[in-house]
Amino acid sequence: QVQLVESGGGLVQPGGSLRLSCAAYGSIFSSRGMAWYRQAPGKQRELVGHITNGGNTDYADSVKGRFTISRDNAKRTVYLQMNSLKPEDTAVYYCKQIGSSSWGQGTQVTVSS
Question: Is 88 helix (H, G, I), strand (E, B) or coil?
Fold first, then answer.
């Protein structure tokens, strides 16, 4: 079963940027798709976007044009570059390997002035 460790969250002002990382351990990485989710207080967890094993990406409409997912198979890591952040992006962000039921601990992103 894959183990996932997210990092890179923090407090940022509106309009700012953050890059989240997710390291994967204990499972085949390069042949699996990866996804980012987020969960805001009082809301259900939602899909932010995903990247296929071939590097193709797709995003939720709410983040399209602002967020970019990439992966480094040599480092077994997937990234979420977040630009032009808005207060409504505040949430705990999680990564997930497609086909796995495992979740990491998440990383908190707070967008506030």
Answer: helix
Closest CA to 6 of 27, 48, 37, 28: 37
- pLDDT tens-digit readout, 60-86: 999 999 999 999 999 999 999 999 999
Task: Provide the CB-side half-sphere exposure for 111 (13 A, CA).
Answer: 18
C-alpha span between 6 and 34 (Å, rounded): 13
Strand 107-111 vs strand 10-12: parallel, antiparallel, or unpaired?
Answer: parallel
86 token code pair: 């808005």
- Closest by CA to 10, choosing from 92, 96, 105, is 92
